[in-house]
Amino acid sequence: MQTNLRYWEYYGMTETFTDLYERSKQGERFNRLYELITSRENILLAFRTIKSNKGSKTKGTDNRTIDDIKNMKDDEIVVKVNKLLQNYQPKKVKRVYIPKPNGDKRPLGIPSIMDRLIQQCFKQVLEPIADAKFYNHSYGFRPLRSTHHAIARIQYLINNSKLHYVVDIDIKGFFDNINHTLLLKQLWNIGIQDKQVLKIISKMLKAVIDGEGKPTKGTPQGGILSPLLSNIVLNDLDQWVAGQWENFETNYEYSRQSSKFQMLKRTNLKEGYIVRYADDFKIICRDWKTAKKWFHAVRLYLKDRLKLDISPEKSRIINLRKRKSEFLGFTIWAEPKGKKRVAQTGVVDKKIQEIKNKYKEHLKELKKSPTEQNVKKLNSFILGEHNYFKKATMVNKDFSRISYDLSKFTYNRLKPIGTYEKPKNPSKIYKKLYSNNFRTFKIAGIYLFPLADIQHEWNSYQFKQNLTPFTVEGRSKIHKELKPDILIEINKLMLSNIPYRTTEYMDNRISRYSMKNGLCEITGTFLFAEDVHCHHYKPVNLGGTDEFKNLRILHKDVHRLIHSTKEETIKRLIKLLKLTDEQIKTVDQYRKSCNLELIGLK
Predict the structure, then answer these.
(1) Could you read off the pLDDT of 495-529 as tens digits, one per residue?
(2) CB-based burial of residue 42 (10 Å sphere; 0-12 exposed, 13-18 middle, 19+ buried)?
(3) What is the pTM of this model?
(4) Residue 23: CB atoms within 10 Å
(5) Which residues contact 402 (CB under 8 A, 6 or more apart)?
(6) Neighbour-count burial of 421, counting CB atoms closer than 10 A to its CB (0-12 exposed, 13-18 middle, 19+ buried)
(7) Which N-terminal residues, if any, form the signal peptide (predicted)?
(8) Half-sphere exposure for 255 (CA within 13 Å, toward CB)
(9) Alpha-carbon separation of residue 517 from 210, 358, 484, 487 (angstroms)
């Protein structure tokens, strides 16, 4: 997010997005958005964003990727987008199927690279308008929100509000069954009333799917705009449910929310709280009778108002005191503790089996080819699963069981190619992430991360609703308080394969990143994996080595600045990075070490 904010500022769009958000909060309608969407600054920001997105390497039906357009000049991109939009006809959408854990396949729709760029232009302008209208406890596909926030909200309702009944509703084929006419009305109702914009979105929705023809409903997963549109569809459900209880308007204004709820309990209203992540949602209730009312009310609302059906076999009411509910890969239940019940969370059985299957595939590949790269792939997989499920209260128990069930398989496969022992002088990154209490295999000079070595990390209850990039206050909090998960970024770095680099370089690169807590060594900003460059302070061609002490972790644009020789490029990067005089002096120290001309203070 820090990188995105810097791009916003560079292209002068920060104040624009803030203005859209605040005006939308105040209920304003927008009927002149097309000019903003097709503005030079917005198109170039979209182009910059698309270039840094890994999905841009995926081919559409025209077999083109970002590589085919990334060298176009700024003016060429702006003219190209505007020309396409004058009489917009999206290219065919490529149909791709990816496997689901239950054995089914999920259909994805991949637009052409130019159509993705156009969708990004629309998303940037529409998102702040829509986000201002979204319900507080909608957590999917929104800036700075995650699955962990959704789980934390449910834990809070169980622990603090003593709500132990869950209404589980599964929408049948949600993304494939979104009603186009209704969606356009919903866009209008939240304030997007530019008819030219709505007309183009309608064409996006009706883009021909290769091999299937023109769709009459649905929005294909894989499109950049689809997640935002799906949230707009289900925001009606969020607000309707919240309006029945949590946001119910009373004649009397209460000083405390709890006092209001106490009075509402004397009425015939249905007590219930919705928590949603994309199309997965739950309504948390106090008793069976209320839960049953909510179940039928929501089923009818989805059918009558949103033209969506539920899956009867997957939709149910669960008493969390007796059974477990599943949500986003976690199991949730209410367990006795003293005189009350507290929320407990674990890993769902399907996900446990999926972890086992993927682990075995990695092991088979490792046995065939016991290389350093395959060891790192397995370690990256283990770390990724640990990062996701560390918020579960029973994560240690579940992963200990997974490790035990796989122990014989692991030993039999790896004994011929590795050494089984407690780590002796493990790498810095291993020491940071894991203890020396577990025996593990050492293969190609690298210790495997132990599956069982994971502890529960406390899940903070409440998401701060003012933590948004669309306000001055929110951006201030992002810069000061937001602490990205460094383990997630380390996991991404471990997957990278840089040709012709030594093992020493690759290990020291991650160790240096970890030691610096992910911060750029010149600007001090947090670096996400995609922004990390590792610089040799003394270049290799001047006798520098891959030793830890000779490496520096830098933002990729800072690294480019150090090696740039063109004055135009240097000025552009200094403007983008907003470097202070002291930081420019530091850049010059690096350039001096590379025998390059100093920038100097101008």
Answers:
(1) 777 777 776 788 788 888 888 888 999 998 888 88
(2) buried
(3) 0.83
(4) 16
(5) 352, 355, 356, 359, 451, 452
(6) exposed
(7) none
(8) 0
(9) 46, 30, 10, 10
